[in-house]
Amino acid sequence: MPLRMLAIETSGRFGGVALAADGVPAWQRTFDAPFTHSRAVAPAVESGLRDLGWTARDVDVVAVSRGPGSYTGLRIGAACAKTFAYATGSRLVGVPTLDVTARNALDLAAPPSRVAPVVDARMGKVYTCAYAVRDKTVERETEYLVLPKDGPWEALPRPACVFGDGVPADDAALPAGLSRGDPALGAPALPRLVELGTQMAREGRFEDIHAFAPLYLRLSEAEEKRRAAGSGRRKGG
User: Fold this and answer.
1) Looking at the domain assignment, is residue 90 inside a domain?
2) How many domains does the chain contain in total?
3) Which residues contact 169 (CB under 8 A, 6 or more apart)?
4) 82 with 181, same domain?
5) CA distances from 66 to 75, 103, 125, 168 (A)
6) Same domain, 136 and 194
């Protein structure tokens, strides 16, 4: 029997759902309008199952993009994935979003030897991580990082090709030793989520459905504002 998977991507402004068999997407739908994940995921899953003639219980594994990324999007994706897995008895894998995005470099005819997806984390911060690219594989070289958006990003090894919505728009603001990649590489792609999720499932890297939580890396914007306001009151008092 093939390994059947539901993949859910809601980590950024745009998202999508895919159904796959043995690591190959058989059906997918992307959400073109921003911030509609909460309304789009369930109908998309229902449409996909119907189009393929699958039932919900035919799905063996749910793979969800676990972050870092949009707080709201990650919460929606995690909730949808956990609910589906619990209701159907499927296993759950949480796939790091930066790992998925880094694999986009494998689509290039001549991939650079090192890449670093850079995601806008708001509040003057970015999420990033460095990856070595060799022999059609991507290997993580650093921890997942939260860095100031304006650099200099000393924690990233050089040279590296950076891409994503957190990369400064002005080349003059790009730290030395870092080169700008195609912005199109900066979005986590559903086929790559399926690919990495399938690999993790075959390695037995499943999550406890009840304990699973997104990879946030930092406080939400609202929480940071509340903390800053509270700190200001204490200093003033």
Assistant:
1) yes
2) 2
3) none
4) no
5) 9, 16, 19, 25
6) no
The whole-model pTM stands at: 0.90
Write out the E strands in 80-205.
91-96, 114-122, 125-128, 131-134, 137-140, 145-148, 160-163, 178-180
- Among 20-34, 43-57, 153-167, 183-197, which stretch is predicted with the lowest mean pLDDT? 20-34
- Tens-place pLDDT, residues 63-73: 999 999 999 99
Domain that holds residue 60: 4-96+187-221
Q: Which element (helix H / strand E) includes 7?
A: strand 4-9
For residue 218, the model assigns a pLDDT of: 77
Mean pLDDT rounded to a whole number for the chain: 91
Whichever domain contains 149, its CATH number is 3.30.420.40
The answer to whether residue 231 sits within a structural domain is: no
75 in any annotated domain: yes
The residue type of 226 is R
Write down the pLDDT at residue 202: 97
